[in-house]
Every structure is written in structure tokens, then in C-alpha cells.
Write a structure and sequence with these properties.
Layout: E1 3-12, E2 22-27, H1 40-43, E3 49-52, H2 53-66, E4 70-74, H3 80-92, E5 99-103, H4 109-114, E6 121-124, H5 131-138, H6 143-158, E7 162-164, E8 167-177, H7 183-196, E9 201-205, H8 226-239, E10 243-246
Parallel strand pairs: 2-4, 4-5, 5-6, 6-8, 8-9, 9-10
Antiparallel strand pairs: 1-2, 1-3, 7-8
Length: 272
């Protein structure tokens, strides 16, 4: 029986409106090494403990009983085999709510193909259109092509977002967090998404905060300005990408968890 490392699970309010309340399961470890990661305690320092696939299936069923609108698998990629086993088991035991794959976007299309039919909602980041930034800030050289291919496969599987009774039932939501002083990076991401489908739901995020090792790079030592964010948002609208959400300024303080605590989140909802 395979295992996975999990830092926390519970009802989570820090997602887009049709995903709330999300049944969050936060996995430890990550295949990126982002210098500005807000979840660095678990992604880079690996806080958490091991669970087998049956225990993970039990968590999913518990979250359904608690009233979760979905199972929100946060940073699942490196644990995909155990997660696959757990989903199959949980569905066999009565799991009915949608499964959301909440990832950094940097993943093998083969892994995404392996999850076909098990994942209802894909929620990837699309961080970079410039590979030099991906290498500089996240330690990888081929982010753009890898994420582009993975997101295209996600779209093939589930299509555009379907909302039933104000809740996400199936489909793709792509997140992009605007970085300080990197407008052309955001423009490239949005150009790529517009080429997939102008009906895509985009979550444009304004939550960047200089955390973890961001102080290694002077340009990352500040929040995104209102002007920078507005320029990116206007570019998005100019392209015709009108579906989705934009995150209001001031959300940062509500999204910085402390996984050393039993309840790492302060439970304040962010505002889209």
C-alpha cells in the first residue's frame, strides 16, 4: 500500500467562491522550489506525517460528512499514485463530491492522463511564460512548455468550468499570481491561455508577499502595486478572457498559514 505525506486537512475558505467550503488536503513536498512560496513550511521543509491510501480515503469521506463542496488536493503531484488509489477507494465507499486537483502546473502530462476520469476540477497555477524566471525563482528550466502541455491535457479532460447551484461541478480554473516588476511574464501567460479558449475561467491573483527566500532577489522584496495589477487585469480583458475572478488587494495577510499550529489558517475568507 502506497503512502503520502500530509500536513493538514479540513474545511478551507481560501479558494475561489464556487469551490467553498473546500475540503482541503495539504500535501507535503513539491516539485518546484519557489523562493517566494507561502507554504514553504510544508513544500520545502516537509512538515507533516505519513498516511497510507486507505487513511487518505478516510479523510476524503470525513470531509464530505463535514459539508465540503469538494475534495481540494493541494500540491498533489508528487503523491499521485497514492492519491489515485485513495480516490478509487473513497468513491467505492460513497464519495460523491467533486475532486479538485490544485497544483503548481508543472507536471508530466502522463500523470494528468493517469488521473483522467478521477479528477472533476483542475485548478493549476500558470506561473511563468518566461523560462528564465522559472529557473531563477523556482529552480527549473522547462516550466512554460511543461505547464502549457499539462493544462491543455486538463482542458481536454474536463473542459470549461461548469457551476451547478453556485458550486463548481467540473472543469478547469487556471490561476495566475502577478509578480512585482514582471508584467511581460503575466502577458505571456494570458496570451497562452487565450489561445486555448477565451471562455476559460481565470483566477487572477493579487496575493504575492515577499516570503521564504524572496529577499534573495531585490525585485521580489515588495508587494505588487495597484497599478501593476490593474495593467495585467486590463490586458486580460483586452484579450477577451472575461470569465473568472480577480483578487482584491489586501488579501495577503489572510493567506499566510502556519503549519506548526493545529489550525494553520486564520479562517478569514479572501475576497475575489
Amino acid at each position: 500500500m502506497t503512502q503520502t505525506k500530509i500536513a493538514w486537512h479540513g474545511l478551507h475558505t481560501g479558494e475561489e467562491p464556487p469551490l467553498l467550503p473546500a475540503g482541503g488536503i495539504f500535501f507535503s513536498g513539491c516539485n518546484l522550489h519557489c523562493v517566494f512560496c507561502q507554504n514553504f513550511q510544508i513544500s520545502q521543509q516537509y512538515l507533516g506525517r505519513l498516511f497510507d491510501s486507505q487513511e487518505l480515503a478516510g479523510m476524503m469521506l470525513e470531509l464530505q460528512i463535514l459539508g465540503a463542496a469538494n475534495i481540494d488536493l493541494v500540491t498533489p503531484t508528487i503523491w499521485h499514485q497514492c492519491i489515485k488509489e485513495a480516490i478509487i477507494s473513497a468513491k467505492g465507499q460513497g464519495l460523491k463530491i467533486p475532486i479538485a486537483w490544485n497544483s503548481n502546473g508543472y507536471e508530466s502530462p502522463d500523470i494528468i492522463k493517469e488521473m483522467d476520469g478521477l479528477i472533476d476540477i483542475y485548478l493549476p497555477d500558470f506561473k511563468y511564460s518566461h523560462d528564465d524566471l522559472a529557473f531563477k525563482y523556482s529552480g527549473i528550466k522547462d516550466y512554460f512548455a511543461t505547464a502549457q502541455t499539462a493544462i491543455a491535457e486538463m482542458y481536454r479532460q474536463v473542459g470549461n468550468l461548469q457551476i451547478v447551484n453556485n458550486k463548481a461541478a467540473k472543469g478547469l480554473i487556471v490561476r495566475h499570481m502577478v509578480l512585482p516588476d514582471q508584467l511581460t511574464n503575466s502577458f505571456g501567460v494570458l496570451d497562452t491561455l487565450a489561445a486555448i479558449d477565451l471562455e476559460l475561467h481565470i483566477s487572477l491573483m493579487n496575493q504575492y508577499s515577499p516570503l521564504y527566500q524572496a529577499d534573495r532577489f531585490p525585485e521580489l522584496g515588495r508587494a505588487v502595486t495597484a497599478e501593476e495589477f490593474a495593467i495585467v487585469h486590463q490586458y486580460q480583458l483586452k484579450l477577451g478572457l472575461g470569465n473568472g475572478w480577480i483578487q482584491e488587494a489586501g488579501s495577503q495577510e489572510n493567506l499566510i498559514p502556519d503549519f506548526c499550529k493545529v489550525e494553520p489558517f486564520n479562517n478569514n475568507p479572501i475576497t475575489f
